[in-house]
Specification:
CATH topology: TATA-Binding Protein
Radius of gyration: 12 Å
CATH architecture: 2-Layer Sandwich
Order of helices and strands: EEHEEEEH
Strand order of the largest sheet: 1-2-6-5-4-3
Number of domains: 1
Number of strands: 6
Structural class: alpha+beta
Strand content: 25-35%
Shape: globular
C-alpha cells in the first residue's frame, strides 16, 4: 500500500525493457548526493552498494535494488509489480527528501 502522506507525487512506470520500474518526481528537484548518502547510512534501512556525486545504488533488506539519481529519478529492480515499486520509491524518496535542495 502506498503511503497516504506522500512527500511529493512520483510517476512510476515499467521501463521499456520490462526489467525494472522507473520512478521520477513530477516537479524538478535536486539532491546533494553526499547528504543523501549520509542519511541512508544513518537510517540503515538500505545498504549502499555504490555512491558517486551523481547517483547512489541502494539495496533493501528484501534484496531490492534502487538506483537513485541526483534529480530524484530512481530505477527499481527486483520488484514484482507496480504497487511494490511505488511503495519502495516513496519510502526511498521520503528519506532522500530530507537532503533536497528545495530552498
Amino acid at each position: 500500500m502506498v503511503d497516504k502522506d506522500k512527500p511529493m507525487p512520483l510517476l512510476v512506470r515499467l521501463c521499456s525493457d520490462k526489467a525494472a520500474f522507473e520512478a521520477r518526481p513530477q516537479r524538478r528537484i535536486y539532491f546533494d548526493m553526499d547528504s543523501v548518502r549520509r542519511l541512508f547510512q544513518a537510517v540503515k534501512t538500505y545498504g549502499i552498494l555504490v555512491h558517486t556525486p551523481y547517483l547512489i545504488i541502494l539495496k533493501s533488506k528484501t534484496n531490492r535494488e534502487i538506483t537513485f539519481s541526483e534529480d530524484g529519478r530512481m530505477l527499481l529492480k527486483r520488484v514484482s509489480n507496480e504497487e511494490e515499486a511505488k511503495t519502495l520509491a516513496y519510502d526511498v524518496f521520503k528519506v532522500a527528501l530530507k537532503a533536497s535542495k528545495l530552498g
